[in-house]
Amino acid sequence: MHAEADDEAHYGQWRASLAALIATPEALMEWQNRRYRFAHAVGRMLADPACGQPALQGPVLYGVYLSGVGLAYVGQTSDARRRLKDLPIGESHHLGMTVPPELWEKVVVIQWPVLVPTLAKAHQRAVSSLGTEVVGLALEHLVQVDRRPPLNARKRALDGTWRDRRLETSKSRGATHAQLVAPLHQAVSDAWQALETAQCPESMPPVQATPAGRAVFPSKIIDRERHAEHWSR
Q1: How many CB atoms lie within 10 A of CB 174?
Q2: pLDDT confidence of 232, banded at 50, 70, 90?
Q3: Which pTM value belongs to this model?
Q4: Please, how many CA atoms are within 13 Å of residue 43, restricted to the half-sphere of its CB?
């Protein structure tokens, strides 16, 4: 009961704090401005050119990390520029509505097509024969099976509840083709590990990028803005 009471207290604090932030029409508009500025900045770090690497386009895998949780969500898209810029805004994705991007510790993005040429010719042909949509779904499935991100563990039901996903027995397109992309999955895992363990740079923007993808540190934007504000007083 103690934990439940704490949950209710935190929920009440969250509601009260948000209510105070939007207590007037002017405050509401400023809150909207602040949220969108931040989400826009995160979207640009995720998709635009960074660290000498070009903008991300086409198919990618991505994972969002939360402090105290670790990897919380894994997704994929065939249109990196659109999806990654929308991800923190949340207009067409539930993640930004469930956990606001101000709380995202890190986002890892893997541009998996650049890894295909590193595979043996037979594996390259297998990937090519499947098409990018199916390969993206298969890689997403394999990463979810490997890493068990909690926000992928359930799906919404029509009655307002949640139902567990059974990844091992899934009959989805990604699951049924997963073994055909196993060598690519290994290359993705290696690239993911390298970016997952990358340290946030001291300079702005807080991004580390390689030809295979990038790691973005959204929470560091707020930390550094607060630090700059403190020392400018």
Answers
A1: 21
A2: very low
A3: 0.91
A4: 19
